[in-house]
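Re: the pair you flagged

First of the two:
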Amino acid sequence: MGLPAADDARAADGRSSPRYGEGLTNRQLGRRFEITEATVKRHLHNAYRKLGITSRVQALNKLAQAPGGHCA
């Protein structure tokens, strides 16, 4: 799953990016997708690394700036 750009991250993690902008915690995301909080953290860490970012704020900014961005 090589993710060099925000579009690729949204495609790979598309299940979580719209909800990510809802301000859900890692625990809430895990419950929503029936995965553990640790799995959520691992997916977010991988997405951050691939996007070259280190925080939720930066992730939301990247997603909002990408064509078709989901975050307001």
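Second of the two:
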Amino acid sequence: MRAKIVRLLAMVRPWIAFSRAGVKAPRATSVGRPPILKIKGDVKIGARAHFRTVQLRPRIAVDRGATLTLGDDVFLNEGATIWASESVTIGDRVLMGNLSTIYDTNAHEVRPGEGVPHGSCRDRG
């Protein structure tokens, strides 16, 4: 009985979190709490995404006008972070390890005095 309750919670928690953020996440599950979501743009999550959040919750941020696409069977481990400033696409069956980070923006100066460049990372070659 306890195992059934744990499996049910693993499905319900992320569904509630993503639903509150206006995101459909078909059959998403999590061990522990659901990821931290800051969604202002468009998010598409494939089937069976899984989030491991026992100690450090993954963070997903999507800026206004940006797009984040996660494929089927994607796994985000403890503390993984995705920040889509314009567009981030992660394919099917991708596993992100502890504390891994994916940003599509340069949110800080690289060389002193240059300032923070704006626009897509692709535009900067």
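The chain is about 15% helix and 30% strand.

-B.
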